[in-house]
Amino acid sequence: MYYIKKNGEPATTTDPNEVTKENFLVEPGGENRVWVKLTKHEFDQKSGEKRMLVNQISSLNPGDFEFCARNWRQNDIDIEMLHDPRPELKGDGVEDKLAKLKAQMGEKKAEPKGEKKQSK
């Protein structure tokens, strides 16, 4: 169950598609956790397009976010930050941090791999 604002009033929903950054309310006791909405995409072989497969709301310890975000990016999972209690990432810093992680992942994929040694 997720807490959201609906028509200005607190409400609950079980559908992660209804949850956005603007209407998300942190559940009681979850103020010190990072809350993210994860979207997994699947490639449709018939149409040749990526389509949304699953939305999921996840909460984790602030210290684990960077590690998990790297893994999610490697698996082509989009991350939407819903709540971040870390003071150094308040406001625009959240988007900058995600952009920095995306750039790091892009650089790692673009780096040429070293040549393998041939055994004799």
What would you note in describing this structure?
This protein has one domain (2-108). The protein has 120 residues and is of the alpha+beta class. 23% of the residues lie in helices and 35% in strands. It starts with a strand and ends in a 10-residue tail after the last helix.
- The rounded distance between the terminal residues' Cα atoms is 61 Å
Beta strand %: 35-45%
Structure classification: alpha+beta
- In the sheet with the most strands, the strands line up as 2-1-3
| Helical content (DSSP H or I, runs of 4+) | 10-25%
Estimate nothing, just give the exact number of structural domains: 1
**How confident overall, as mean pLDDT?**
76
Which regions have little confidence, pLDDT < 50, spanning 5+ residues? Answer: none
Helix and strand sequence: EEEEEHEH
Number of strands: 6
Q: What best-fitting shape do the alpha-carbon axes yield?
A: flat
Lay out the secondary structure:
Blueprint lengths: L1 E5 L2 E5 L10 E2 L8 E11 L4 E12 L4 H10 L2 E7 L9 H18 L10
Antiparallel strand pairs: 1-2, 1-3, 4-5, 4-6
Helix pairs in contact: 1-2
Structure summarized in a few sentences:
By secondary structure, the chain is an alpha+beta fold. The protein has two helices and six strands; from the N terminus they run βββββαβα.
Defining key terms:
single chain; 120 residues; alpha+beta; 3-stranded antiparallel beta sheet
